Amino acid sequence: MIEPLIHWLEADQSHTAHWRSENGSAPPKRVVLADDRIPADAAYRLASEGTGLLWHGDFQNARQLLLAMARRIDRKPRKSATSPTEAFNFHRQFQSHRARTLGMLLLPLDADYSIPLRRAPNVHLACAEAYGASDAPSVVSLRELLGVIGAHEWRKKGVAIPALGGRIHPHYGVFSPVRGEYIELVAQAPLPSLERAFDIGTGTGVLAAVLARRGVKHIVATDQDARALACAGENIARLGLNERVEVVAANLFPAGRAPLIVCNPPWLPARANSPLEHAIYDPDSRMLRGFLDGLAAHLEPDGEGWLLLSDLAEHLGLRSREALLAMFAAAGLQVLGRIDTKPTHPRAADETDPLHAARAAEITSLWRLAARIA
User: Fold this and answer.
1) pLDDT single digits (tens) 53-75
2) Does pLDDT of 280 surpass 90?
3) What is the pLDDT, as a whole number, of residue 353?
4) What digits encode the pLDDT tens for the residues 98-112?
5) What does each C-alpha distance from 139 to 8, 17, 107 come to in angstroms?
6) Which of 118, 138, 191, 221 could in theory staple to 208 by disulfide, Cβ–Cβ 3.0 to 4.6 A?
7) By the 8 A CB rule, do 311 and 269 touch?
8) Distances in Å between the alpha carbon of 221 and those of 196, 243, 255, 276, 308?
């Protein structure tokens, strides 16, 4: 893949560098130099107009400027919504605008990922983990770089998973299992078999690891994302579960059948704006439909498919319960049972969240599905 280039003038000389953007956004067409002397209001105005600010000042001052710009965005009045769906759409529009504006504060990276600025941290390992090897200078938004640094810290520290008695270490670009309620559902639901299971769209490998800890003898964990495959493989090895869990590249299902097939697809049928958001947003419910449509053909007789799904989309008016049940029926599936739990994440209790009403009503379910008997 050829990386796009970003261009700017400095001391009347034309400069070019590789442009790094995880969400695939194009580099700003207009770039000006900025340093510690620029007022926050001026920086915010330029960024709002789509002008990139290539920072040549102190790194820590750039962080403070980013916070100041964010405050200016966040205090602007929000649009009033007349329905949950409209509230969701307005929220997504705001988040997109916020990300686009804050993404205009740019930092230079040398070929070895060092930052040629005062008081800059060493980000070589964090960038290498996120982007791979580098042999040329590049430019990245400060907002994205802070995400890379944060992901590196999460990867080092890991996320404690009580059902595992251990930790999962998410890689950059792989969704972190910070919402534990769906993991607990898999840890507690009655197993139909201990012989074999498939974990479809494994991500960090957390559900495959939980099944292995519960005694399932062989789990095939699939994903089609290279970062997820590397992340799952590393976590499975770290937990000492290589003999039970096989991580393979596949678009949904591996070859063969299993008595248990587990899938935790993205929960909201909407367009993702970055690779990381693919774990949250599933345009037209493509992964959900793909899993359901292929499930019966990959289940052994009397096998169960476990679908882990929040009903947040229903509360937001993005998908109805009737539509979900119709998907089951169209795929030749029947519902054996359902185990529900309430989310415990902080947003469920945050009354300032524009989607609070939907989040407060949200239920996460483990649907036990089986092939319908003709």
Assistant:
1) 999 999 999 999 999 999 999 99
2) no
3) 73
4) 999 999 999 999 999
5) 11, 6, 6
6) 221
7) no
8) 11, 13, 12, 19, 16
